[in-house]
UniProtKB/TrEMBL annotation:
PROSITE patterns associated with the record: HTH_TETR_2
Sections of the chain in a coiled coil: none
Organism in which the protein naturally occurs: Orlajensenia leifsoniae
Protein name per UniProt: TetR/AcrR family transcriptional regulator
Pfam family membership, one: TetR_C_6
Molecular function per GO: DNA binding
UniProt KW keywords: DNA-binding, Repressor, Transcription, Transcription regulation
Classification via InterPro entries: BetI_C, Homeodomain-like_sf, HTH_TetR, Tet_transcr_reg_TetR-rel_C_sf
HTH tetR-type domain ranges (all copies): 1-61
DNA-binding region: 24-43
Length: 185
């Protein structure tokens, strides 16, 4: 388990530095003193390796940005701001999430579960804002959570094509629109 964690932690740094497309499995193996076969011994496939790198990224972000202790929208904005500093990991996420649309892809269930957790978390956050009277009761929390997720992923794609796009500012603006869309009861 320790070697697997070392591989994932090193992979985060290498991909963040070099980019997803410019990082080979050989380079990841070299980084931790293994052969390619030795590295893949810890994972069932290259696809599982990349899925686990993304899972590790989520874990690191959750710890670094105290996602359990902050308002979910603030945590999301902080993570998105950080993502602009690690374009290789954004590229990896975009590539693997697209490939995982195929139900046969090894990361399919990872992304299904990841999106489910995200939607539930943001739906609950919106309900809490409604209960506190900061968001109108006619806002559908489940629908808005799905919209925030779609905007976040779509912004990452746009940002990869045009890095001048401020993803965090766009999400902050969307949240202000949601909060202002309907008067609190």
């Amino acid at each position: 388990m320790a070697k697997r964690e070392e591989i994932l932690t090193s992979a985060l740094a290498v991909i963040a530095r070099n980019g997803y497309r410019r990082t080979s499995v050989r380079e990841l193996a070299d980084e931790v003193g293994l052969s390619q076969a030795g590295l893949l011994h810890y994972f069932s496939s290259k696809e599982e390796l990349f899925q686990e790198i993304l899972r590790k990224r989520d874990e690191v972000d959750r710890d670094a940005f105290d996602l359990e202790g902050t308002a979910p929208i603030d945590g999301l904005i902080n993570v998105v701001r950080h993502n602009a500093e690690v374009p290789g990991l954004v590229q990896l996420y975009a590539q693997v999430s697209t490939e995982a649309g195929d139900p046969e892809h090894p990361a399919h269930e990872f992304f299904v579960e990841r999106y489910r957790i995200f939607r539930e978390s943001y739906s609950a956050a919106i309900r809490a804002e409604q209960d506190a009277g900061r968001i109108g009761s006619d806002i559908d929390p489940d629908l808005v959570a799905s919209i925030v997720l779609a905007v976040t992923d779509g912004l990452q794609t746009q940002w990869m094509l045009d890095p001048s796009i401020d993803m965090a500012a766009t999400i902050e603006h969307l949240w202000r629109l949601v909060a202002a869309a309907a008067p609190a009861d």
